[in-house]
Amino acid sequence: MASAPVHHLRVRVLLLVALCFASASASASFPWPWKRSGHGHDYRDALAKCILFFEGQRSGRLPADQRAAWRGDSGVSDGQAAGAGVDLEGGYYDAGDNVKFGFPMAFTTTMLAWSVLEFGDDMPREERRHAADAVRWGTDYLLKTLAHPGVIFMQVGDPWKDHECWERPEDMDTERTVYNVSAGRPGSEVAGETAAALAAASMVFRDGDREYAELLLESAKKAFDFADTHRGAYSDDMDLRAGGCPFYCDFNGYQDELLWGAAWLRRASGDDTFREYIQNNGKTLGAEDSINEFGWDNKHAGLNVLISKEFIEGEALSMQSYKESADSFICTLIPESSSPHIQYTPGGMIYKPGGSNMQHVTSISFLLLTYAKYLTKSSHTVNCGDISVGPDTLRLQAKKQIDYLLGDNPMKMSYMVGYGDRYPQRIHHRGSSLPSIKDHPERMACKDGTPYYDSSSPNPNPLVGAIVGGPGEDDAYGDERADYRKSEPTTYINAPLVGVLAYFVGNPNPGHIRH
After folding, report:
1. SS3 letters for 190-249?
2. Rounded distance, CA 391 to CA 403, Å?
3. Where does the signal sequence lie (predicted)?
């Protein structure tokens, strides 16, 4: 084809489409047509590679200790299109393109921070340091988006022009258009998620860099105040919608991000004001909506798990409804329960239509382990109709999903680049699929990459640790670069997986899994 396709993998499909009533026999038994290998997975190796992936997604001037050596500096003048003094260098490219989308980047940073907070003690010291570096690469950029009064910068790069090209980030010459939200063009979902990311990250750095942690927390409060004072969704603005949609449209509304940001500020600061905000605004902001989803757009399931922590620990009995909503979500994941179930593939993978399915596998697995951790510290269980579910069951459910991702699946392949003997070779990723600037320093223009895009050869620069979108509902994966719904990695697939893998590094055998 003449140019790279415009990819819409991030167009969210509502969970109402994704949820199905699986038959009791199919859900309970999982008739998987494969057998596990005779040995367990190397979760430590997988964790190290999962974190390394983020170095391949970096934008800006790369540090001296950059380990993804095939990458070079890129986007060093980002922000200049917005006027003098605007510096938006840094941050992460969201996926296989060269655009910096602030909404999913902030969510990625939140999940990296939450991973470190819940499971950092299970990480080897060196990986804990690398994970904190990944968080900081995100927060350093997010602080820049708040640096100018009255606006929050939410995106750098025209996605339509970017997607017309297949070129390395080091060469990109497409317009680096800057988009921002303001009082007149609100974007509470972006501001609220930015507040959540900075608040969560402040706890990551509290012990080692108190001054930076305080800066993050104060900036989080400012972002939240902006989100709450100027309420509205950026995708309701025609100009912002033209840049962000259909790639990261706010389908779910901004209300959940207000509660999400407040919840993280409550946890990071201990300030009762934010708990009162949740109590006073929860109903009007949709806290009672029964939406069993968690990802860059919809925070409901994660919000319920996060807030229920205080109730489970006996510190906020007024938050009982969030525990009940979290329980309801968990029950949809338990095949033996009488609740309507999330769909599973014949091979046992959580599946939702819309592409980039591994984002659901990793984010839901993270919530399973985190909720199990909270339950373990109390006598609480999850009541799923005629059965009561405890922490061990949740951990085993998460382990099934992660082992599937790492190779225990009908294709008998890992969906993490560089892990195992068989993994994706032709991922939908510009920098990975083109000759490295270190090996081919001559500039490659917009269309010069098209032959590489069309090639059936493996990518010359393995993006180690990248998790691809993954197989479809039939468990099949063709390893085709053009099939972006299956072969494109994203930062928000990897971010929650950091925490999940860290847990299994410290607890590789949480129980016996019967196949």
Report:
1. HHHHHHHHHHHHHHHCCCCCHHHHHHHHHHHHHHHHHHHHCCCCHHHCHHHHHHHCCCCC
2. 18
3. 1-28
Q: Which residue has the tokens 């959580």?
A: 350
Q: How much of the chain is in helix, strand and coil states, percent to nearest 5?
A: 45, 5, 50
Would the pLDDT of 24 be above 50? Answer: no
Q: What is the pLDDT, as a whole number, of residue 511?
A: 60
Positive or negative torsion for Cα 120, 126, 130, 135? positive
**Taking CA 439 as the corner, what is the angle to CA 59 and CA 64, rounded to the nearest 5 degrees?**
45
Q: How many Å apart are CA 57 and CA 94, to the nearest integer?
A: 7
- Which residues are catalytically annotated? 428, 479, 488
Separation CA 391–CA 305 (nearest Å): 13
Short-list 210, 17, 214, 123, CA closest to 507: 123
Reported pTM:
0.92
- The tens digit of pLDDT for each residue in 448-484 reads 999 999 999 999 999 999 999 999 999 999 999 999 9
pLDDT digits (tens, 9 = 90+) for 189-204: 999 999 999 999 999 9
